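Hey all, sorry for the wall of text incoming. These are the two entities for the joint prediction.
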Amino acid sequence: MKKFFLMMTTVVCGLIINLSANAGSVESLQSDYQVQGAGPFSAAAGETMWQKEYLDEKSGKQRSCQTCHGKDLTRSGKHARTGKVIEPLARSVNSERLTEVKFMKKWLKRNCKWTVGRECSAQEKGDFLEYLKGQ
Amino acid sequence: MQLKKTMVWDLPTRLFHWVLVLAFALAWATYKDSRHLGLHTIAGYTFFGLLMFRLVWGVVGSHYARFREFSYAPKEVLAYLRSLLGSGIKHYIGHNPAGAWAIFVLITFGLLLSVSGVIVLGGEEQQGLLAGKISFDQSALFRTLHELIAWTMVGLVAVHVTGIIVESLLHRENLIGSMFRGTKWVSGESANVTSHRLVASVLTVSFLTWSAVSLNGYISATEAQPYQPFKGPVLAMNELWNEECGACHLAFHPNLLPARSWQRLFEQQADHFQEDLMLDEATFNELTNYALMNSAEEKKTEAAWKIDRTVKKSETPLQITALVYWKDKHSDIADETWQREKIQSKTNCGACHYDAELSTFQDSAMRIPK
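and here's what came out:
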């Protein structure tokens, strides 16, 4: 009996640690941005920038986050050039989203460059994450 | 003169003849479209098996089926052909000398056709009995031979059929019907031929079993689970590659472009088709290394081999769709087809090629979705 409780406690503790680590990863990235002087973060500001269109001078086309991720974040999007399916960004339907710091950092960097034409500031990235957290 | 209905062609000989015709016809109907390579191969093996049977039956079979019975010297063939022009044509119960020679030549070419086919299958596809034993380069010669022999066969069949028709008219007898019924109207002495039903039954059961086994995959295939008769070689995969490249498009395997192309693509990673890949040094090194070690030059698949030999050494193509080989292979696909809901892009290899992610691109592993 004792053994069983010990086992259960270990499993439950493990689960809690695991869950909090997942829940915390987006916050920990945001706090990194705060260390860099950004914050507080606004979901509204993130949403505005998310929907804003930027002109790409080379192609002459407007680009926005929605170009690839689509208007509805609970549905899958499509890569603008290759047409490859991009899984939904909303964590209400895709639990894998906002769970890995390295992944978030990489794509915030690359996709800002493609869409906005420059890397985003810590404030902007924090706002994006604040907006995405509520999806 | 009294004509007597006499058995000339025993049942195994007739079965051999007509199934051989069917097998050849199937092989002919399936050779052009490489999607049908599986069926072509089944037809080929059937053809080969039948010829092997005929070789045995030519020794132990009934009287008129034996090779000894219709081995005529060349001068007898000439005499026979000359007699066709004049009167007094000699009537043979079994094969006449010209027909007999046609049979020997057909069997010889049939065997050459089968053997060259197995060699091409082993070399070009790395499948079948000789898989791994013949290189892609070696198979090229046999591919040409296989085609030449096949066309010669068609010519020989034409001669054979013409001969049958001419003789049928000259002798006022239905030789094609005889090959079905086995009997001819014969005057005078003839050898005693039985049907050999037991051998015919064994032949039939073997054929039906082989058909069921070899065609089973096609019969049980569904739209969702199509039959793939051939599996390609297992290629070296790299998790990081699949993750990095696969984020935006099919992680095209390095075997689809020459090493110099990959080199150039990685040098230009900051402007990768208008995207900055931003690969860190460790990632960059691992991916470059993997690409260079597994490029088209390694010739691990038929596609890689053909890409390698068709890209001009002076050129460095940066897109697979820009390859001469790719363009040639996809030239008959209409623009409208590319627009289809399930395809949409020329980079969406997996829409038609079931083994796109494995990058083996087997001939038979593709269907264009509606």
